[in-house]
Every structure is written in structure tokens, then in C-alpha cells.
Design brief:
binds manganese (II) ion, about 280 residues, 11 helices, 2 domains, alpha/beta
């Protein structure tokens, strides 16, 4: 048995198509998708079309991520607007997610125990088995506690966009990295193959080159550099393999806003602080 495990596509259909084709060429028999299908990258319907088509002809299991909850109304959409680096992409995406997509996302569980004959059971989830937004791997503040609460010896999770594992209390939690917006990977598309070898699971981390510049061209065609200027500067840097992340630049912009204004509340971050944060990291 060979399973392809793919997390955090974030709307990168070019990276997704590269990973799917690779997994097929490697003989994957099933596909486990760990959430965050759409994110900040353009033309979300291309990603959804690729996933719906794959599901028609392959054995696919899908889990819900925190991004899916965004499109299902978890956040107040009233501050989302074009031209704002904090919310511009949310504004763009919110207009492009269809009723079909919402029904699909709403149908997904946040975790699932996968039982295959003769193999240890595996929990698949996005953040942790108990919360879509919890950080499990690489470790966060509550990783050990969340692992102790898990039902299976192996836990597969996404959310942090980095290939890594944690072992604790006889359990192993593994993050296959991010298909679409990988961090600290030199700009590769990442996923994992999981093989049954003698009744035990064996992991192989995959890193693939793909056409990053095609994604950046689509960002320009969709006007995303006007819609969310600084967010797209950081995203371009991440895609091209710079050692930055949107989360770290956001934190820096919020700290600068706090210094300048005396307070800062997401998503109300004036563009000048985003610009300053981007300039500091050189994107
Ligand atoms: Mn996530």
C-alpha cells in the first residue's frame, strides 16, 4: 500500500498538479489531503477543479483545515477589502469560493482515524486531532498535550508548512510540509509518500521543483499585487524560496503598528507598517 499525503495546497494549482502527477508516477494508491485547499494564490477554481476531478478517479480522503472555516463564515468579513494587505486576499477569495465548494468544505471532518488491515491506525488532521488551528509539528506550546490526547500511534498533520516530525509518549506526529506555500524549503512543492513495509508505516518526504513563475504570472493577471500589495510581496518571496513567512512579516507589521499607533488589532493594520515590515526582510 502506498499513500500520498498532501497538506496546505493554499490554491497553488501548479504545485498541486505537479505533486499529483508525481504521486501517480510513483504508484500511489490512495490520497489523503490534510486541509487548507485554498489560501492566498490566484484562480482558486483551478485548484478546486483539479481536486474534484482527482476525486472522481482516485481513492481520496479530505480533512478540513482552518482556511476552509474562513470561507464558511468563521471570521467577520465586513473589514475585508481590496487594496489592504491584511484582508485583500480574503476579499478576493470570498468572491470566488462557490456554493459547491462551501458544501464540500462543510462536509469535511477536522480529523479522521484511518484503519487499514494489518497496519497501525493513523489519525489525519490539519492542525491537531482536536483543533484545526492548533500547531502540532514543528512543536508548539500544546504539542505534547495534544499528542497524548490522540487515539493512534501515528498522527499526520499540516498547518505549519514545514516537513518535520515529533515523537512523544509512544506517538509520532508528522507534517508532510506544504504542497503550495512551503516554508524553509527553497521554494519546492512538498508532500509525503506513506508505504506499508512489513506491516509498519514508512515515510518518504518528497520535494519537487515546479513552475513558480507561472503562479506569479497568474498573481499579476488577477491583479493580486493591487488587491493585497504587501501580502503578495511576501508571498512571492516565499514561493521563490526566500527564508521568510507571511506569519512572521504580519507579526512584525503588527509590532510596528503597536509602536506607531499605541495599539494594534488584527485586521486593522495601516499599509505603512506592512511596507516597513516588508522592507526590513527585503521583499
Ligand atoms: Mn492552516
Amino acid at each position: 500500500m502506498r499513500i500520498a499525503v498532501m497538506a496546505d495546497i493554499h490554491g497553488n494549482h501548479v504545485a498541486l498538479e505537479t505533486c499529483l502527477a508525481h504521486a501517480e508516477s510513483q504508484g500511489a494508491q490512495a490520497y489523503w489531503f490534510l486541509g487548507d485547499y485554498l489560501g492566498e494564490l490566484p484562480c482558486p477554481q483551478r485548484t478546486m477543479a483539479a481536486l474534484y476531478a482527482w476525486q472522481e478517479t482516485h481513492d481520496c480522503t479530505f480533512i478540513r483545515g482552518n482556511k476552509e472555516n474562513y470561507w464558511l463564515g468563521a471570521l467577520d468579513t465586513s473589514p475585508w477589502r481590496r487594496g489592504d494587505s491584511t484582508t485583500g486576499v480574503l476579499w478576493y477569495m470570498n468572491q470566488r469560493v462557490t456554493e459547491k465548494d462551501k458544501a464540500f468544505f462543510a462536509s469535511l471532518p477536522i480529523a479522521r482515524v484511518m484503519e487499514l488491515p494489518g497496519l497501525p491506525a493513523v489519525t489525519i488532521c490539519h492542525g491537531s486531532p482536536r483543533a484545526v488551528g492548533e500547531c502540532l509539528v514543528p512543536p508548539g506550546d500544546t504539542t505534547y498535550e495534544a499528542m497524548e490526547a490522540a487515539e493512534t500511534p501515528l498522527i499526520l498533520c499540516g498547518h505549519r508548512h514545514r516537513q518535520a516530525f515529533v515523537e512523544h509518549a509512544g506517538r509520532r506526529a508528522v507534517n508532510p510540509g506544504s504542497v503550495g506555500v512551503s516554508l524553509q524549503s527553497g521554494g519546492k512543492a512538498e508532500y509525503m509518500l506513506l508505504d506499508d513495509i512489513g506491516g509498519q508505516w514508512h515515510e518518504t518526504m518528497i520535494h519537487l521543483d515546479y513552475d513558480v513563475e507561472q503562479v506569479i504570472r497568474e498573481m499579476q493577471e488577477e491583479d493580486l499585487f493591487s488587491i493585497a500589495p504587501c501580502w503578495m510581496r511576501v508571498t512571492t518571496g516565499v514561493l521563490r524560496g526566500l527564508n521568510v513567512s507571511q506569519a512572521s512579516v504580519l507579526r512584525r507589521a503588527m509590532a510596528l503598528c503597536e509602536q506607531g499607533e499605541g495599539h494594534c488589532e488584527w485586521p486593522y493594520i495601516p499599509e505603512q507598517y506592512w511596507e516597513a515590515a516588508c522592507n526590513e526582510v527585503g521583499v
